[in-house]
């Protein structure tokens, strides 16, 4: 019995090619692009937080509150949050595809990853865009010292 194995670089025959979007290819591309963008975002974040000004000793609630009042840093942090969570979720999905043996466990794990990523993205985005360091009506002893009008 003889069987022929096609050369690795030979094109697929028309009968075996699936139609539609190749999601694995786009996931692979996303991981490479988001990884490069995340390196820039994370090192920019660390540089501003640790190297500019007084360094790590300046990191406190007032510093974070001041950053989150600036629309530039709000967008920076949200982009970093979204890219990191989707990047991590896609990586976990790849691990589940590689190591989960049954179709049911693979499906359950992928749904759990999706729910976790979506929940954290929604909560993180809400925190960044609704953060108020000086809430109206809060007791004076519970708010930051820089909040003057209560």
From TrEMBL:
GO MF terms, alphabetically ordered: metal ion binding
Matches recorded under InterPro entries: SQR/QFR_C/D, SuccDH_FuR_B_TM-su
A GO CC term attached to the entry: membrane
Top-level taxon: Bacteria
Protein location: Membrane
Record-annotated membrane-spanning stretches: 29-52, 72-90, 111-131
Record keywords, A-Z: Heme, Iron, Membrane, Metal-binding, Transmembrane, Transmembrane helix
Pfam families reported for this sequence: Sdh_cyt
UniProt xrefs under Gene3D superfamilies: Fumarate reductase/succinate dehydrogenase, transmembrane subunit
Chief localization: membrane
Keyword set includes Metal-binding: yes
Protein name from the UniProt record: Succinate dehydrogenase
Organism: Cryobacterium lyxosi
